[in-house]
Design a protein that fits this description.
The structure holds two protein chains of two kinds.
Chain A (H helix, E strand, L loop, with lengths): L5 E3 L2 E3 L3 E3 L8 H4 L10 E2 L16 E4 L2 E4 L8 H12 L6 E5 L4 H11 L5 E7 L16 H14 L4 E4 L7 H10 L4 E4 L3 E3 L16 E4 L4 H14 L4 E3 L6 H10 L3 E4 L2 H4 L3 H16 L4 H4 L7
Parallel strand pairs in A: 3-14, 4-7, 7-8, 8-9, 9-10, 10-13, 13-14
Antiparallel strand pairs in A: 1-2, 5-6, 6-12, 11-12
Helix pairs in contact in A: 3-4, 4-5, 5-6, 6-7, 7-9
Chain B lengths: L2 E14 L2 E7 L12 E5 L10 E9 L4 E7 L3 H6 L7 E8 L11 E7 L4 H12 L3 E8 L8 H7 L2 E5 L6 E2 L2 H5 L8 E5 L2 H10 L4 E5 L15 E4 L2 E7 L6 E3 L3 E2 L1
Parallel strand pairs in B: 7-8, 7-11, 8-9, 9-10, 11-12
Antiparallel strand pairs in B: 1-2, 1-6, 2-5, 3-4, 3-6, 4-5, 12-15, 13-14, 13-16
The chains are: A alpha/beta, B alpha/beta.
């Protein structure tokens, strides 16, 4: 039997598969469909200090093998997440990675400090890469100095290991990765969505009310793989890779590129059972490829 | 309970301009509880197009484990769906959302539909009639070529048709018909374009009403927060059309 377990800072995963933040809410919807304890972990929806209503609609638009979204970090706010959503998730035997967002450093610090004390939160994912908010978000993730200082500030207050979620919308992602490593990050999650647009051909207007949105889905997998490949060779930090994962072979590819675990995002909308299906298929696929464990695959491309 | 199933196509036919009627069979059909719920369909096994399509259910046959959908084939996704033939299978997720509360009607109900909002009213009319509720149907379409199910609605009750171009029935919108009709009903149910729903709400501010809304969807189950609307119930929260709705009591959704 193949060994699917993965050990990462703060996380003892029974398998490397987890739903990506923003594609799984706080788990309630998918809990109607399957037992969430099957999952390696859950990355919950981004949480900010206050309730956020998010952007006007339309918030999504389909594109070739992908979709754009500009939800705008809609969430019930720190208090409701820590008092309602996270306690509800405690019924499942699954580690939670809490996605933390904000518009100022103080916001990030406030959310990180409080949410990291929730018993089932075993790691934080610091969202310095949301492309759909006017302030904060991506502005923290495109300048190495800003990213390093934010990492430091969050690390100081967090009770659990801190992973930084990187944006692909940069010239040199390695420089951002190195900066967050210097800032004391425990790991990296990557990639967030790629900034994009879609027009209404008849009217010439952008379809997304926010004008631009974040591109996700199978269309972005090659970009994500390339970035995981580069970053994993230039930092020692473990990477949770994501971007266009839809099946077990995509997972193998991300592990080969240098990710230690893999998140599944948009594919949950297409096939709500995609995470448990991939988990079910992983042992046989590892065996077919001649591996006994997930860990043997990590970074295999670097060694060839 | 929400299920995902590869359902068998039993029948597919074009019933009006761009309008298709598709009947499928499978265990999922027996989960259908309320008229006005919808299903989320993956039209291709590839990732092109990527997202599922929300399609409304026009009638349910629990004994045969079948249900019938009516949709407009106008884009890439619904165009592919229109190519499905008996014997093909399609990936269906559902039933989704909350439908029309049939127990709210007392004696007589108005069912007001526009275009591709008409289909869910048919199952609703059937279920209301089987409970002894008298139903009056006021249905609006673009033109004569776009009209469907007129006879089927007539079999269940008084039916009025409006077309925008006047090629069939009353010229204009459903509201033109409503202005001429008595108000001796207790409950109304409506599904169609948002401006129509607004007009219907304005027409009957004193009546009990239930409206089915449309919004661009992502997941269809409430996880992605794409299909939100503002609500009169809270200034700090949205409602999700896919999972809180698509049917809401009149006066709740701010469109």
């Amino acid at each position: 039997m193949s060994d699917l377990t993965v050990k990462l800072p703060g996380l003892n995963l029974k398998n490397p598969i987890m739903p990506a933040s923003g594609c799984f809410g706080f788990g309630k919807e998918y809990a109607q469909l399957y037992d969430l304890s099957q999952l390696g972990a859950i990355m919950i929806k981004a949480t900010t200090v206050e309730t956020r209503l998010g952007n006007p609609t339309p918030r999504v638009a389909e594109t070739a093998s992908g979709m754009l979204n500009a939800i705008g970090l809609q969430n019930p706010g720190l208090e409701k997440v820590t008092e309602q959503e996270l306690p509800w998730l405690e019924q499942y035997d699954v580690p939670i990675i809490a996605n933390v967002a904000g518009t100022t450093t103080e916001d990030y610090v406030e959310v990180a400090k409080k949410i990291s004390q929730s018993p089932n939160v075993q790691a934080l994912e610091i969202n310095i890469s949301c492309p759909n908010v006017k302030q904060g978000g991506i502005t923290f993730g495109t300048d190495p100095n800003v990213a390093r200082e934010l990492t430091r500030a969050v690390k100081e207050v967090s009770a659990v290991p801190v992973y930084i979620k990187l944006s692909p919308n940069v010239t040199n992602i390695v420089s951002i990765a190195k900066a967050v490593e210097e800032g004391g990050a425990d790991g990296i999650t990557m990639i967030n969505t790629l900034l994009g647009m879609r027009m209404d051909t008849k009217t010439g207007r952008p379809i997304i009310a926010n004008i631009t949105g974040g591109l996700s889905g199978p269309a972005i997998k090659p970009v994500a793989l390339r970035m995981v490949y580069e970053v994993s060779q230039h930092t020692k930090l473990p990477i949770i890779g994501m971007g266009g994962v839809t099946n077990v072979d995509d997972v193998i590819d991300f592990l080969s590129a240098g990710a230690s675990a893999v998140a599944v995002g948009t594919a949950n909308f297409v096939n709500p059972f995609v995470c448990p299906e991939i988990i079910g298929q992983l042992p046989e696929r590892l065996h077919e490829l001649g591996f006994d464990s997930v860990e043997q695959l990590v970074g295999r491309s670097h060694r060839l | 309970m929400i299920k995902q199933e590869r359902m068998q196509v039993v029948k597919q036919q074009q019933i009006a301009h761009q309008i298709f009627e598709l009947t499928v069979q499978g265990a999922l059909a027996t989960e259908m509880a309320e008229p006005g719920q919808f299903v989320h369909i993956r039209v291709a096994d590839s990732f092109e197009p990527l997202l599922r399509r929300p399609i409304s259910v026009a009638s349910i046959d629990l004994e045969a484990s079948q249900f019938t959908m009516i949709y407009r084939a106008e884009g890439r996704g619904t165009g592919l769906l229109a190519e499905k033939k008996p014997g093909d299978t399609i990936d269906v997720l559902g039933p989704l959302g909350h439908g029309f509360p049939i127990e709210e009607a007392e004696k007589k109900a108005y069912l007001i539909g526009g275009g591709i909002g008409v289909p869910p009213l048919y199952e609703l009319a059937k279920q209301l009639n089987s409970r002894g509720i008298q139903t009056v149907h006021i249905l609006g379409f673009e033109s004569k070529q776009a009209v469907f199910y007129e006879e089927k609605f007539r079999e269940l009750g008084e039916t009025h048709i409006a077309t925008v171009d006047g090629s069939h029935g009353t010229q204009g919108f459903v509201t033109h018909i409503l202005n001429e009709l008595p108000t001796d009903f207790d409950t109304y149910y409506s599904c169609g374009p948002t401006p129509m729903l607004e007009a219907v709400q304005w027409a009957y501010p004193q009546k009990k009403g239930f409206l089915s809304y449309e919004q661009r969807m992502g997941c269809g189950i409430g996880a992605c927060f794409a299909c939100v609307c503002r609500t009169t119930k809270s200034e700090t929260d949205y409602i999700k059309v896919c999972s809180d709705g698509p049917v809401f009591p009149a006066g709740v959704v701010i469109s």
